[in-house]
Amino acid sequence: VHPNVSQGCQGGCATCSDYNGCLSCKPRLFFVLERIGMKQIGVCLSSCPSGYYGTRYPDINKCAKCKADCDTCFTRNFCTKCKSGFYLYSGKCLEKCPDGLEANNHTMECTSIVHCETSEWSPWSPCMKKGKTCGFKRGNEVRVREIIQHPSARGNPCPATSESRKCIVQRKRCQKEGKGKKNREEKRKKSNKDESKETRQESKGRPARRQNREQRENNNKTQPKKRKALNKEQDLAPVDTAH
């Protein structure tokens, strides 16, 4: 220790010297040696820098160096992040991942291999040809499935997500859309025309039926009077008694 030890230090130092920097730190701070050229200077920090891990002791808290392949570590034997070119696995930094695992270049870790997963096949589609379901005998039908899990770099690739097969349908003519619409319109007009005709005929026959009914009622009223007058004439007629 350099003889020039001072108690009035700055930067979190409890004791310091002009030559060595911090010699001890205030409570809860970590002491670490930083190399400047051929010289090491003591500094006090609230947390350890990259490449170091902290250890607390009753008299002092120190920052110790991680292994050479570790960028950050929890202890000397447990890395939390590896330097470039290494992959993290179970606290260790490896140049090559173990069997059954693959290197993830995004996280720089050894991860499990993920294989592709797909859903079940859908039902077969209707038999079609050129987008139509009529006007042909042979066509194709299709079924599809979806990808549920995409594979990782070393995982099994996804299979085909669609299948097609030939099919045979009953030959039938395609009804033209315009012609079918025209026929439906003509049927509707004809139906409306027939209804109008029946309505007119019913309206036309209604007065005649009313007139016939009135005439029958009048006849029923006048017939008794005619019979009564006829009987009266017969009673008044002279009786021929000459022989």
Automatic annotation (TrEMBL):
Residues 175-219 have a biased composition (Basic and acidic residues). InterPro entries: Furin_repeat, Growth_fac_rcpt_cys_sf, R-spondin, Rspo_Fu-CRD_dom, TSP1_rpt, TSP1_rpt_sf, TSP1_spondin_dom. Residues 11-110 form the R-spondin Fu-CRD domain. The keyword Cytoplasm does not apply. It comes from the Eukaryota. GO terms for biological process: positive regulation of non-canonical Wnt signaling pathway; Wnt signaling pathway. Belongs to the R-spondin family. Activator of the canonical Wnt signaling pathway by acting as a ligand for LGR4-6 receptors, which acts as a key regulator of angiogenesis. Upon binding to LGR4-6 (LGR4, LGR5 or LGR6), LGR4-6 associate with phosphorylated LRP6 and frizzled receptors that are activated by extracellular Wnt receptors, triggering the canonical Wnt signaling pathway to increase expression of target genes. Also regulates the canonical Wnt/beta-catenin-dependent pathway and non-canonical Wnt signaling by acting as an inhibitor of ZNRF3, an important regulator of the Wnt signaling pathway. This is R-spondin-3. It comes from Dasyornis broadbenti (rufous bristle-bird).
